[in-house]
């Protein structure tokens, strides 16, 4: 091993169980639900709660695979590391990692546009795109400050956004208790489609609200006692988010008619107005905090994933450089933020969100297969083991959801993957795994 004076700085193991639970909960309880309940009602009528329940089950199936692989291979890089070990193909590993990395940057770009949309313009009349750029720069500065500091900020924001959703549920229950709601609204079927087809389409939208748990795999090197802590935090956070979402999906169409929810750009705000207690402006602030928190957590994931892939020689090795004092992946933070800014300038929110889901379904499909393939690989330490039926059912759920995607989103994902292949070929030709060409006269600093 290298001496302490020559060894590169490593990521700090500073994430405890409560911090990890709140990280995952904050990522799952993201900004999507503040707008997507209306879209879900447009698909499934009042059966929004059922769509949330189906999406929760599908998410938990894949979570079993992540619980096993993260505790078995506790390294930054997540799904890309698992793909490389399972399929023994650097190209496949790169494409899996690139799908997840792209999804993270695309999601952050979409969240920046959501932050600078109607919720922000309720207080400040500013141009959307320049404000989105400033927002992403501020998120990058918080990310570079330090993982522990970032997660402490996440604690505050997660508590606020969770309380905001709880307030919506409580206000909805109060309206129901006053006899001013129609409980039948929560059981109103869709008008123009068969029930199960419509609910499945709504579940695809709801699935976007649950994605985010997979980003925690990229923090594996920074979690204390990962074998014990990770599964508890993962399943605990998904269960908590599931309860909130299902209750939200029940009270919203009971308080506000499903047809009105479908037409609204702020469906939860309509529920708050019906309660008549909380000022709408206060709830708008909560929504802004939720969006900001989602963007921060997404960019933490993207930068750590780029760092891990660089360590594996799948991306240029400078991305594996760590800031000496802050112990955060500084180069990766700069690069992922720059790409997110370009996407925010050139993209539209709806297309960005749909592309995120499609890219992550490819990642989940790879990970669920990988957990079965890697059963033959034994490790010396204890780790979580998922029942075999779980990844098998998870593969089936991913295939079902892929059939619900639209052609234009397949096209956009294809373009992103084509860019990924070009980047992979260039990287393989110009560099070697975990080596830095000393253009500045220094020795290599990346790698393990």
**What does the largest sheet look like?**
none
- Principal-axis shape equals globular
User: What's the total number of strands?
Assistant: 0
Percentage of residues in DSSP E strands: under 5%
- Helix proportion range: 55-70%
The SSE order reads HHHHHHHHHHHHHHHHH
Oligomeric status: single chain
What does this structure look like?
The chain is 69% helix and 0% strand. With 448 residues, the chain is mostly helical. It contains 17 helices and no strands. It starts with 16 loop residues before the first helix and ends in an 18-residue tail after the last helix. It has one domain: Amino acid/polyamine transporter I, CATH 1.20.1740.10. Helix 2 runs antiparallel to helix 9 and helix 4 crosses helix 15.
Brief description of this entry?
It is built from 17 helices and no strands. By secondary structure, the chain is mostly helical.
Question: What does the secondary structure layout of this molecule look like, with pairings?
Answer:
Elements (H helix, E strand, L loop, with lengths): L16 H12 L4 H12 L3 H25 L6 H9 L2 H26 L2 H4 L6 H18 L1 H31 L17 H16 L15 H30 L2 H6 L3 H9 L4 H32 L18 H17 L2 H25 L15 H14 L4 H24 L18
Key words describing this protein structure:
single chain, mainly alpha, Amino acid/polyamine transporter I, 69% helix, disordered C terminus, transmembrane, transmembrane helix, cell membrane, APC_superfamily, membrane
């Amino acid at each position: 091993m290298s001496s302490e004076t020559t060894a590169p700085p490593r990521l700090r193991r500073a994430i405890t169980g409560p911090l990890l639970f709140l990280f995952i909960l904050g990522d799952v309880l993201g900004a999507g639900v503040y707008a997507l309940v209306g879209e879900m009602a447009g698909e499934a009528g009042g059966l929004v709660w059922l769509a949330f329940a189906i999406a929760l089950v599908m998410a938990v199936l894949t979570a079993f695979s992540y619980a096993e692989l993260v505790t078995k291979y506790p390294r930054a890089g997540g799904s890309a590391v698992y793909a490389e070990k399972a399929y023994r193909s650097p190209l496949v590993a790169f494409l899996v990692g690139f799908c997840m990395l792209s999804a993270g940057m695309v999601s952050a770009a979409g969240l920046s546009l959501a932050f600078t949309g109607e919720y922000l313009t309720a207080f400040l009349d500013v141009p959307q795109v320049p404000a989105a750029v400033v927002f992403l720069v501020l998120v990058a500065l918080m990310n570079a400050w330090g993982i522990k500091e970032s997660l402490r900020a996440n604690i505050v924001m997660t508590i606020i956004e969770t309380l905001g959703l709880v307030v919506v549920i409580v206000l909805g229950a109060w309206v129901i208790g006053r006899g001013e709601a129609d409980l039948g609204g929560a059981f109103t079927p869709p008008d123009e489609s068969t029930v199960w087809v419509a609910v499945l389409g709504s579940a695809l939208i709801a699935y976007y609200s649950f994605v985010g748990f997979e980003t925690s795999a990229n923090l594996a090197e920074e979690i204390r006692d990962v074998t014990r802590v990770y599964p508890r935090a993962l399943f605990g956070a998904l269960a908590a988010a599931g309860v909130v979402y299902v209750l939200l999906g029940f009270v919203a169409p009971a308080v506000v008619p499903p047809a009105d929810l479908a037409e609204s750009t702020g469906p939860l705000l309509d529920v708050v107005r019906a309660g008549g207690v909380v000022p709408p402006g206060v709830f708008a602030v909560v929504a802004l905090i939720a969006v900001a928190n989602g963007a921060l957590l997404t960019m933490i994931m993207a930068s750590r994933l780029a760092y891990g892939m660089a360590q594996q020689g799948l991306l240029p090795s400078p991305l594996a450089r760590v800031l000496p004092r802050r112990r955060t992946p500084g180069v990766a933070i700069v690069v992922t933020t720059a790409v997110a800014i370009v996407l925010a300038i050139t993209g539209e929110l709806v297309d960005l969100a749909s592309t995120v889901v499609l890219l992550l379904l490819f990642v989940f499909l790879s990970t669920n297969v990988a957990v079965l393939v890697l059963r033959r690989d034994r490790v010396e330490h204890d780790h979580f083991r998922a029942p075999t039926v779980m990844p098998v059912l998870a593969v089936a759920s991913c295939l079902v959801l892929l059939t619900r995607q639209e052609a234009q989103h397949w096209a956009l994902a294809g373009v992103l993957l084509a860019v990924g292949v070009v980047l992979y070929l260039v990287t393989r030709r110009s560099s070697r795994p975990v080596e830095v060409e000393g253009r500045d006269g220094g020795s290599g600093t990346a790698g393990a």
